[in-house]
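Sharing a chain and its predicted structure for anyone who wants a worked example. Both blocks are below, sequence first, tokens second.
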Amino acid sequence: MKSFDQHGLPISNACDDAAAGYDAYVREFLSYGSKLRDLFAIADSSDDSALVNAHAAALHLAFEGAEGWENAKPYLARMRRAEATATDRERLFAAAVESWAARDYVRALAALEELTLRWPADLCAIKWGQYHAFNLGDQAAMLRFAERARIVFEDRPYAHGMIAFALEQNHRLEEAEEEGIRATEIALDDAWAHHAVAHVMETQGRAKDGARWLDHCAHTWERKGVFIRDHNWWHAALFRLALGRYEDALAIYDERLWGAWPEFPQEQIGAVSMLWRLEMRGVDVGDRWTPVIDQVRRRAGEHILPFHDLHYLYALARAGAPEEADAFFASLM
């Protein structure tokens, strides 16, 4: 049994309902929507679909914490069982997820490079490829993925936000801003495009422009997932810091940056990085560190991503817990 997704790509062993559910997931994923979890129910009823289960596993791994690896296990098992009847494209995506689960991020990226070279219409795989390229600091790969998206998806929503951020990461700032604005003309709620343009304005020292830009876009974030909502508000707070509007930055922290999902590693590192920036500017943050550090302590020894580890280490040192910080540092070796 074979269905097709919204980009005309086949999905093996998926009934019509599963294919429709997968398509809904693709839209949510590309737009940073708030209903990504719906894919898990689709995967739970799609034992024979390697692709659907691979994407469900990927979502859990993208939690970027030990719980994600644990929760991915049943989906990885179903993915492996279904690979024999999968297409070549699906097997390549499964290989990427398999490498990711083994924390071989370089090999995961390589599989996604091959997949998107052969099937550049797989915008979801391009997005996952950019995710790994960003985490590996491979800006050139980010741009390669973006150029594949540009060729196939000239006027499709959310492709241009991906192109814009890749351009920004490669210091092509004017082009990045143009692409980001074009992205919002195609889809006003392209939160990744909002983010890309904010990066440009931050790099150029345009704090007033950046604050105005994100204020203009912010009403679209309420329907988004926690990561992009938190992160774009983090950038909005950063512009307030640059403008010396410290009370406004604290208000954003209290109302937008902490508390939506405290167990989420991205919320934790966003809180750590904002609190230390506030303190470096002499702002009294009161007892805001306490709940953040309580969550960070649970991350000791995970070592999912180096970027996270540096934030966790700073938080432990800031907590006045030198033995914990030393033990965490030693575990990095």
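Comments welcome. Strands lie at 2-4, 10-12.
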